[in-house]
Amino acid sequence: MNNLISQLNYYFEYPFVRYAFVVGTLVALCSSLMGTTLVLKRYSFIGDGLSHVAFGAMAVASVCNLTNNTLLVMPVTIISAIFLLKGKQNSIIKGDAAIAMLSVGSLALGYMLLNVFSTSTNLSGDVCSTLFGSTSILTLKKEEVIVCLVLSVIVIFIFILFYNKIFAVTFDEDFAKASGVNTEKYNLLIAIVIAIIIVLGMNLVGSLLISALIVFPALSAMRIQKNFKAVVICSAVISVLCAVLGMLISIVYSTPVGSTIVSCDIAAFIICYFFERIFRFSR
């Protein structure tokens, strides 16, 4: 045990490790806040589709040699979120079909661009890092951490400020609309916030796994809590704990960061599921 603590203390002397934990905790917290809404509104696949769009945008940014990929990835992901939201409501191509087209198309085009135009000598490593977040979280710069901090504060502020409206739109959109709530505006706000979270989370778990970071904590919390506010709080606690535990395990045992965090989220879901079953059986 003393050796483990000494090892962790040694690693925490490096700034990039501290940066990784700050960003990981913030992304996990923001993901959990909107995850409950995403699951209850059946928008989970939108989150998955946006993560693939973010990969395609990241590929374009890499080919163009942009020094800050976020300048391209963020607007493209937000525009795609708006498109998917509108498509879910009144497009010729509706729901799952539009998400599948955008998702698969972005992955294919992104990978093709990286293969054809990339000058990197380690293309497979770059693609793997972008998809699964294997090393990118450990190469963060101070400026990127500050951007993540600012955007995370904005997401948390928006969620707290519009909590009642988000709650109303999540549970009964028709009633909220009848009560005078501009549901289209708040659905748009939810989609934009989700897009921001996905871009933030790409460095942590990669574009393929970020939707798991959004969905799993919410599903776990729903197993043991039934009140919306309690689910959100419980989801936040589970998400942050899994992120911290996943990063600690990754550092000590040299496992991929993103996959380790998602594995912790899966383990938390299994524990919550069995806890729910035992509680029901004992009643």
TrEMBL record:
Highest taxon in the source lineage: Bacteria
Pfam annotation, one family: ABC-3
Any single GO CC term annotated in Swiss-Prot or TrEMBL for this entry: ATP-binding cassette (ABC) transporter complex
One record GO biological process: transmembrane transport
Major localization class: membrane
Spans through the membrane: 16-40, 69-85, 97-117, 147-168, 188-216, 228-251, 257-275
The keyword Transmembrane helix is annotated on this UniProt entry: yes
UniProt entry keywords in alphabetical sequence: Membrane, Transmembrane, Transmembrane helix, Transport
Listed InterPro entries: ABC_BtuC-like, ABC_TroCD
Signal peptide, first to last residue: none
Topology of this chain in the membrane: Multi-pass membrane protein
Gene3D superfamilies for this protein: ABC transporter involved in vitamin B12 uptake, BtuC
Subcellular localization: Cell membrane; Membrane
Family: Belongs to the ABC-3 integral membrane protein family.
Protein name: Zinc transport system permease protein
Native source organism of the sequence: Acetitomaculum ruminis DSM 5522
